[in-house]
Each structure stands twice: as C-alpha cells, then as structure tokens.
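Need tokens for this chain, all 133 residues.
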Amino acid sequence: MSQFQSTQANKTLFLNTLAFTFCFAAWLLNGILVTFLVDNQLFDWTAIQIGWLIGIPVLTGAIFRLPAGILTDKFGGKPVFTTLLLICAVPLFSLSYADDFWSYALCSLGFGLAGTSFAIGIAYSSVWFPKEK
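Here are the structure tokens for all 133 residues:
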C-alpha cells in the first residue's frame, strides 16, 4: 500500500466513522425523544404506541441493512453513504413538525434508514484496507 493509498484509506475511515456517528445519533434520538415527550406529557401515547415508535427504527434498520450493503457493493460507498445522509436528513427535519402518532411513526421509518449506515460504512471501509488490518 503506497503512502497516498494509506492516506486515502485513513481519510475514508475517518469520514465513515464520522458519518456513522451522525447516523447512529439520529437513530438513537428517536427512542430518546419518544420517552422524553411522553414523560413530560407532551403526547399521550399508549404503551403499545410507544413500543411501536421505539421499535420501528430498529426494524427498518434491520430490514434495509442487506439492501444497503448490496447497493454499496454495486455503486460504491461514497454515493450510497451520501444518499443515505441526505435521505435521513428529511425525517430528521420533518420531526420538528410531527404533531401526532402517525406523523411521528412516519419519521421513525426514516430514522430507521440511518441504522443501515453501519453496513454501508463497513463495506466501504473494508475495501481500503488489507485483510490483516
């Protein structure tokens, strides 16, 4: 591995880690917000609704992890990760307008897509490093 390739590999690893951190924070933000909003009585959701709102991002992330990995293998990590970040920005912004269970649940679906970032980042980072690293 040349010096340029090593520099590029480390830069890619850093940017993937940073993007993954943002996605993971967004993914977790959903569950934290649900409990905060209910505990402070801003929404009167039932225990079942709370469970759905917390579970939707986890399920969405699990379901779309495989397709995201396949897209990364086909198109490369940079365009797939960039697209994921742009797509996930929409529900993050839209959440500020969510005023009922269904709008929050729809945003939760978008939060779940952020959970696929690990599959994208790992697939993209592994291309830059030899097996022993």
